[in-house]
């Protein structure tokens, strides 16, 4: 429906509802019958703003109906508004898509005040007081007219014609801004919020949450933040409170769905703008706890309680106390972990290099594995964080598809075994897989075991490839395994998994040549040719870890004028500041931290203290001395480190923290352990590592 047809239909419907004839309405609106007939028959596409206002008043329309009528009658021929005004933040005006300065501070104040009451007359006295204060000069009325005239010209589109409706118009008692939700973000905000509340009342919480989020995203800061004269105006204060109420309502809906993270930034802004707003702070506490930040949620409560006592002499209200009790009791709903399962595999990276021996080994293992007539072949790729397990698995899978193998069906899921988010629930993954296999949602069984049975049935006899990426445990994987030997399962994990009948490939860091090849692929071989020794040194400084080498290359990509010879120095500086939030180490530190958090408290402490060992390799006895534990107690802790690929068993009774893991360990011990603890551990180690004591048989290391 075009603009004129929409307007014609609305006017006719509203007139008939009011029981008016065309002659009646024309008389009430001060229009000729011919003019009204032209509107109702769609011959007028853009009536004057004054005509629209007269129709609104004569039909006695509610605010939402008036906005709808104005919206229908104010679109230009292309359907897009040529004038837009933004008040949900600093005052923003665009005409024909180009930012326009409304003019002097007085003109900005006048326009800002009009936007607070869209499509309604603002009286002369109110406008004069806002722009010139309670004691205006005698010339204020005349100045008001001239400033409004200037502003009207600034707001007039270049393609406007005589007779077109104007955004800024005069009336007998003042001025008004005739705008739609497409032209004023405040109206758009209120329109979207109204839709969100309708969806919430209808029980459609997911749609309501999306609409509340859309409304919240319209805000760019405090309303009219750059119009100083209106900062304390009742309309601006009321608009700020309106935003606060909507964000709290949004948070309530999001909390019911367990979608705390998406509303968290808006709650922080609202709570920051009103440090005594108990409802906003209560919602902020719930959202923080829902994101796993229970300590931060508790700190919000204690900080606000102190402020309430100091500034108002009162205690927190029941809403805030209730939220705090829920935080303490962990009574916060969390959103089910979203998973990704597709018919097609994820695309491989164009920067994939090396791994020829590993790919050959995987292909050979598959030939051996498919000789079984009953068991599904499983290939498990294990290794430390950032070593390239996922990319190797994807490359191997695409190579198989390229030969026509397993082309019938491919399923992939990130199980988030070591992630900032909770690991994927096998029941949720199976529901997604079954949907991909054509099972209607209402036919997906409720229990995980029943879903697993149906999953195996749907894949029976099919040439299917299932890639289970970033697995956490054997228990997580077991329900996701097909039973047919015609299928293939690829598993990647940072943990050492015990999977019956599986071929396991322990993926190590790059060779020096492979690290060089990745730098050349990302930076170009000509850029490395001028400093080959520096490039090799950079690969070694990255511990040959693919993720770290790629991060170093991306760092240099962002600095096209810099020479490769500078890279080692930058890497040395980054390694020495491994705990700092700098791009060169951020990605590596993040993935290492995910594996570190999987350790129990004793294993974490041991990993940190191993940074104090003077050499790269250590024995069980040296580890025991550092941790002040018996070797029998330390051995299972070292096994944890090896299982999480945070340490490597290099020989019987000897272990090593390789490459950047040693820098990560040092960063942690300096951040977590006190100087007294570190000195005591080092002091215990010195006698154990003394060569004279070793020769006399007294050494433990």
UniProtKB/TrEMBL annotation:
Pfam families according to UniProt: BTAD, HTH_31
Domain of life (superkingdom): Bacteria
Domain HTH cro/C1-type: 11-69
Annotated Gene3D superfamilies: lambda repressor-like DNA-binding domains, P-loop containing nucleotide triphosphate hydrolases, Tetratricopeptide repeat domain, Winged helix-like DNA-binding domain superfamily/Winged helix DNA-binding domain
Alphabetic keyword roster: DNA-binding, Transcription, Transcription regulation
Signal peptide location: none
Any one GO biological process: regulation of DNA-templated transcription
Entry keyword Transcription regulation: yes
UniProt DNA-binding residue ranges: 72-179
GO molecular function, one term: ADP binding
Xref: InterPro entries: AfsR-DnrI-RedD_regulator (IPR051677), BTAD (IPR005158), Cro/C1-type_HTH (IPR001387), Lambda_DNA-bd_dom_sf (IPR010982), OmpR/PhoB-type_DNA-bd (IPR001867), P-loop_NTPase (IPR027417), Sig_transdc_resp-reg_C-effctor (IPR016032), TPR-like_helical_dom_sf (IPR011990)
Keyword Transcription regulation: yes
Residue ranges occupied by any OmpR/PhoB-type domain in the UniProt entry: 72-179
Family listed: Belongs to the AfsR/DnrI/RedD regulatory family.
Name of the protein described by the UniProt record: DNA-binding SARP family transcriptional activator/DNA-binding XRE family transcriptional regulator
């Amino acid at each position: 429906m075009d603009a004129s047809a929409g307007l014609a239909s609305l006017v006719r419907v509203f007139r008939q509802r009011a029981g008016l004839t065309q002659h009646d309405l024309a008389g009430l609106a001060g229009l000729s019958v011919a003019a009204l007939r032209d509107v109702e028959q769609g011959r007028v596409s853009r009536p004057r703003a004054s005509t629209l206002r007269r129709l609104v008043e004569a039909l006695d329309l509610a605010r939402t109906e008036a906005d709808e009528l104005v919206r229908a009658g104010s679109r230009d021929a292309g359907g897009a508004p040529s004038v837009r005004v933004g008040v949900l933040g600093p005052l923003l005006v665009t005409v024909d898509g180009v930012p326009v300065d409304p003019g002097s501070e007085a003109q900005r104040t006048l326009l800002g005040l009009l936007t607070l009451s869209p499509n309604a007359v603002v009286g002369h006295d109110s406008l004069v007081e806002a722009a010139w204060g309670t004691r205006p000069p005698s010339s204020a009325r005349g100045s008001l007219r001239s400033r409004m005239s200037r502003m009207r010209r600034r707001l007039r589109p270049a393609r406007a014609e005589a007779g077109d409706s104007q955004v800024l118009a005069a009336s007998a008692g003042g001025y008004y801004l005739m705008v739609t939700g497409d032209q004023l973000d405040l109206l758009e905000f209120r329109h979207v919020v109204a839709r969100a509340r309708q969806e919430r009342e209808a029980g459609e919480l997911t749609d309501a949450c999306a609409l509340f989020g859309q409304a919240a995203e319209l805000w760019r800061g405090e309303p009219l933040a750059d119009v100083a004269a209106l900062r304390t105006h009742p309309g601006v204060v009321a608009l700020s409170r309106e935003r606060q109420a909507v964000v709290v309502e949004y948070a309530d809906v999001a909390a019911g769905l367990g979608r705390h993270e998406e509303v968290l930034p808006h709650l922080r802004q609202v709570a920051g703008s009103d440090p005594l707003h108990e409802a906003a702070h209560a919602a902020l506490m719930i959202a923080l706890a829902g994101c796993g930040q229970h300590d931060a949620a508790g700190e919000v409560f204690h900080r606000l309680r102190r402020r309430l006592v100091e500034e108002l002499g009162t205690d927190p209200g029941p809403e805030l106390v209730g939220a705090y009790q829920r935080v303490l009791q962990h009574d916060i709903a969390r959103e089910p972990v979203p998973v990704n399962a597709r018919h097609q595999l994820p695309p491989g990276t164009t920067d994939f290099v090396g791994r020829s021996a590993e790919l050959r080994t995987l292909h050979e293992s598959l030939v051996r594995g498919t000789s079984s007539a009953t068991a599904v072949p499983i290939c498990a790729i294990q290794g430390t964080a950032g070593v390239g397990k996922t990319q190797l698995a994807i490359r191997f899978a695409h190579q198989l598809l390229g030969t026509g193998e397993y082309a019938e069906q491919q399923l992939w899921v990130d199980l988030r075994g070591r992630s900032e988010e909770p690991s994927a629930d096998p029941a949720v993954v199976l529901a997604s897989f079954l949907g991909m296999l054509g099972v209607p949602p209402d036919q997906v069984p409720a229990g995980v075991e029943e879903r697993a049975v149906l999953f195996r049935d749907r894949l029976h006899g099919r040439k299917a490839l299932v890639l289970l990426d970033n697995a956490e445990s054997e228990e997580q994987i077991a329900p996701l395994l097909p039973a047919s030997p015609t299928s293939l399962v690829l598993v990647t994990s940072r943990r050492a998994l015990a999977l019956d009948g599986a071929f396991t490939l322990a993926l190590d860091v790059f060779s020096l040549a492979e690290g060089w090849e990745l730098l050349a692929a990302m930076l170009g071989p000509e850029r490395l040719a001028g400093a080959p020794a520096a490039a090799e040194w950079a690969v070694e400084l990255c511990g040959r870890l693919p993720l770290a080498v790629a991060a170093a290359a991306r760092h240099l990509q962002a600095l096209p004028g810099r020479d490769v010879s500078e890279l080692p120095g930058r890497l040395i500086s980054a390694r020495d500041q491994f705990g700092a939030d700098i791009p060169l180490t951020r990605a590596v530190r993040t993935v290492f931290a995910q594996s570190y958090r999987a350790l129990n408290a004793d294993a974490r402490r041991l990993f940190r203290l191993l940074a104090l060992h003077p050499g790269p390799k250590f024995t069980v006895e040296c580890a025991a001395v550092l941790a002040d534990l018996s070797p029998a107690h330390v051995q299972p802790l070292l096994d944890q480190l090896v299982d999480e690929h945070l340490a490597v068993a290099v020989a019987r009774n000897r272990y090593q923290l390789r490459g950047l893991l040693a820098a990560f360990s040092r960063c942690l011990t300096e951040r977590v352990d006190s100087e007294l603890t570190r000195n005591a551990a080092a002091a215990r180690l010195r006698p154990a590592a003394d060569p004279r004591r070793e020769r006399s048989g007294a050494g433990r290391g």
